[in-house]
């Protein structure tokens, strides 16, 4: 593998974040382009420009952190996010329009939604910022970037989330990005300049807003040509580059974003990646194919973020429409990866993880030789891993059941026998995960966080560990303090990133 520009890889996170927030395709890149042009007009200092560039790419990377909770409380979290994307939270008419778009006009549903939404949205925004900060730390970005990412949902008037800063105390990069983001969302609205000015001094920095409103036509012209190459050209020099190992770290973050869609997906991408690569070695495939399979396994399910967690978490049988959404998630994987040149070579392989030799798979219905040896190994690895994980509608299957299922796929011609043999051999050879080494957290704090990662409530964790919910909460508070976070979702991500928790269930 060659060296990569870090920004090009992180652009993949931007594309996936758009899907995970229910935003239009390319919204993140358009807002980046507008932000860069606005920074020129403001003559933003170099350090703030660098922070602005990375905030634009990473601003919603934590968007899936509370997707399950949002879906459980409010319904389709993607529809809710889309309905409120351009809304002014201080304008009651905007809030009501968003609520009507999200849940419809039935008074009981509307009132219930409006009662639940503030707390759910606050939890989502705080967790989203903290996860983005953890990711920025994993990528080795400067402290100014991490600081600005923690303020993405703050407001000029101090009424944002987490509500720790306002006014001139907000990072310049955050203030500029907020205006650029809102302007992009308002681009097709009547008189976007007037709508921007109405938010000045409330949601947005009045000075930055005034400059943007006076230059609306020029800024909106920039967004029309917001191709990735143009956005990358705005990165301040020197450009950050990463070698193969660090490039895989970015892919691992992409997989993490996908796995956060539901507690049942915890560690799925890493398991598929590791098993597919090991199966390729068992099968005697070339080293470059082993490496490609490892990378493809990490990002195979990024398209999952385009499907609501209400579907992934559903315990009853899926409707035909919901089943079709699930079958389309590999398509969204391919589309997201193809948008980024540094990841495009993985698109065809990564999106083939549900294909079958007899054409019964999805989303392309490949058959016969159209399913490459590498794709067959990835599909077999995914089948083994998935059947060993619990799902809302079924428990995890044991190794005997999984072996029988994969053998049945081979006997029926759905998967090549050689690919199945290699995956079964690799799965049998995989060592159990070592216990987490001593570190920041105590053994009890790790045990509590491990169950938090599985989606259990404090009451359920207390029952499992034979301690009171109050004691569970105390362990969580201690873990939060050690990890530098304040929410359950961001604590899990921070603990995984610090090696305090394992992603592996097997």
Describe this structure in words.
The mean pLDDT is 93. The protein has a two-stranded antiparallel sheet with strand order 1-2. The longest helix is centred in the first third of the chain and has 32 residues, at 107-138. The protein has three domains: 4-231, Hypothetical protein af1432 (Orthogonal Bundle); 244-429, Hypothetical protein af1432, CATH 1.10.3210; 443-497, Arc Repressor Mutant, subunit A (Orthogonal Bundle). The chain has helices at 6-20, 27-42, 46-58, 67-74, 77-84, 92-103, 107-138, 143-149, 172-185, 192-199, 206-214, 216-223, 228-233, 244-259, 268-282, 287-299, 309-312, 320-327, 329-338, 341-344, 347-350, 373-387, 399-411, 417-429, 443-453, 458-465, 469-483, 488-497; strands spanning 4-5, 241-242. The two termini are 30 Å apart. It is mainly alpha-helical and 506 residues long. The chain is globular. Pfam families: GerE, HD_5. InterPro entries: Cyclic_di-GMP/3'3'-cGAMP_PDE (IPR052020), HD/PDEase_dom (IPR003607), HD_GYP_dom (IPR037522), Sig_transdc_resp-reg_C-effctor (IPR016032), Tscrpt_reg_LuxR_C (IPR000792), WH-like_DNA-bd_sf (IPR036388). Residues 434-499 form the HTH luxR-type domain. This is HD-GYP domain-containing protein (C-di-GMP phosphodiesterase class II).
């Amino acid at each position: 593998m060659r060296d990569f520009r870090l920004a090009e890889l992180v652009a993949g996170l931007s594309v996936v974040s758009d899907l995970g927030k229910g935003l239009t395709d390319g919204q993140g890149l358009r807002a980046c382009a507008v932000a860069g042009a606005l920074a020129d007009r403001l003559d933003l200092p170099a350090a703030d420009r660098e922070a602005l560039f990375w905030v634009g790419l990473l601003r919603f990377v934590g968007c899936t952190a509370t997707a399950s909770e949002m879906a459980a409380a409010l319904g389709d979290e993607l529809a809710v996010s889309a309905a409120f994307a351009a809304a002014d939270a201080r304008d009651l008419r905007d809030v009501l329009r968003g609520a009507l778009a999200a849940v419809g006009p039935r008074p009981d549903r509307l009132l219930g939604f409006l009662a639940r939404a503030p707390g759910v949205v606050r939890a989502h925004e705080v967790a989203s910022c903290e996860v983005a900060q953890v990711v920025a730390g994993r990528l080795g970005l400067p402290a100014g970037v991490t600081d600005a990412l923690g303020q993405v949902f703050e407001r000029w008037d101090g009424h944002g989330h987490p509500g720790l800063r306002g006014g001139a105390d907000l990072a310049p990069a955050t203030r500029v990005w907020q205006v650029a983001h809102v302007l992009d969302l308002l681009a097709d609205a009547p008189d976007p300049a007037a709508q921007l000015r109405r938010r000045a001094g409330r949601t947005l920095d009045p000075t930055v807003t005034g400059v943007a409103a006076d230059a609306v036509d020029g800024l909106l012209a920039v967004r029309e040509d917001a191709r990735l190459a143009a956005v990358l050209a705005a990165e301040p020099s020197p450009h950050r580059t990463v070698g193969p190992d660090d490039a895989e770290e970015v892919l691992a973050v992409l997989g993490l974003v996908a796995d956060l869609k539901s507690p049942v997906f915890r560690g799925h991408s890493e398991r598929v990646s590791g098993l597919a690569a090991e199966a390729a070695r068992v099968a005697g495939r070339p080293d470059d194919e082993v490496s490609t399979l490892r990378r493809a396994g990490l990002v195979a399910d990024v398209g999952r973020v385009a499907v609501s967690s209400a579907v992934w978490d559903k315990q009853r049988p899926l409707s035909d429409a919901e089943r079709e959404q699930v079958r389309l998630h590999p398509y969204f994987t391919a589309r997201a990866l193809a948008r980024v040149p540094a990841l495009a070579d993985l698109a065809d392989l990564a999106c083939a993880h549900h294909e079958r030799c007899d054409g019964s798979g999805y989303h392309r219905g490949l058959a016969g030789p159209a399913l490459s040896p590498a794709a067959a190994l990835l599909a077999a690895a995914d089948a083994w891993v998935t059947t060993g994980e619990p799902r809302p509608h079924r428990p995890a299957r044991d190794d005997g059941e999984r072996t029988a299922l994969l053998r049945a796929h081979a006997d029926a011609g759905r998967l090549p026998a050689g690919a199945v043999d290699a995956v079964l051999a690799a799965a049998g050879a995989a060592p159990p995960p070592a216990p987490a080494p001593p570190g920041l957290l105590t053994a009890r704090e790790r045990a509590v966080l491990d169950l938090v990662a599985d989606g259990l409530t404090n009451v359920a964790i207390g029952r499992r560990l034979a301690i009171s919910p109050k004691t569970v909460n105390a362990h969580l508070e201690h873990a939060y303090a050690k990890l530098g976070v304040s929410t359950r979702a961001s604590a899990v991500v921070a603990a995984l990133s610090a090696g305090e928790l394992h992603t592996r269930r097997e």
